[in-house]
Amino acid sequence: MRTPFVAGNWKMNKTVAEARELVSVMGKELAKVPNVEKVLCPPFMSLLAVANLLGGTDLGLGAQNMHWEDKGAYTGETAPGMIKEFCKYVILGHSERRTYFGETDETVNKKVLAAQKHGLTPIVCVGETLAENEAGKTAEVVRRQTLEGLKGVDPAFATQIVVAYEPVWAIGTGRASSADNAESVHRDVVRAALKDLFGSETAEAIRILYGGSVTGANAADYFNQPNIDGALVGGASLKSDDFIAIARAASK
Ligand code: PEP
């Protein structure tokens, strides 16, 4: 049995004061939702403030990115050990990082291996662009990103990894993938690639999230699918009622 997993990616939204406000509004109710791993991923500036508010709850904290090196001359970057001080989780390879900041399968892989080294749980994002989707390349792209991104991972660590299938055309667009389509990519592409990497038993233990315009209204459709183990949520994670509704849907 895979424990359902719901993570909120706040992207570049909320000042520290606003982050405190959002957590104070949604934290208590969210923490009451049973049997779901629930994670908030605010911007770096707010990690400390949010960490202080989450103490004593079962809510987890994640960063939205990290560098793979332990330290050094990498202006503006954040090292795994710095993230580990406050966070258990880190989002890696989000399509916005791939699109705007030049992340590649190779750099995502370096980051995944750094997460392994530091005992952070990576939420590794994969997903095809609209052009790739329309060209019928979804399976090829998602398989490649999964295999390359997780190359060299120790099978003993692999069960801690969370993979998020996020079709780029569905992120922030309101044009969510159908649950059937997401399920078939999760089952036939992502989990199949995980089996090739780590074997069946380990692959079956890895959570695969869907991400792309998930809301409180459509979340249950995804979570009813056998290979959709939760959601990586952008816009709706900034709305208290919506994010709590998504967590509750995952809990059923
Ligand atoms: C995301 O940021 O990973 C995401 C899926 O965004 P949204 O839920 O807004 O589509």
The name of the CATH architecture is Alpha-Beta Barrel
Order of helices and strands: EHEHEHEHHEHHHEHHEHEH
Bound molecules: phosphoenolpyruvate
What is the approximate shape?
Answer: globular
Q: Structurally, how many domains make up the residues?
A: 1
In whole angstroms, how far apart are the ends? Answer: 14 Å
CATH superfamily: Aldolase class I
Q: Summarize the biggest pleated sheet.
A: 8 strands, parallel, barrel
Reading off the top of the CATH hierarchy, the class is best stated as: Alpha Beta
Output the keywords.
alpha/beta, binds phosphoenolpyruvate, 252 residues, TIM Barrel, 8 strands
Short description:
By secondary structure, this protein is an alpha/beta fold. The protein contains twelve helices and eight strands.
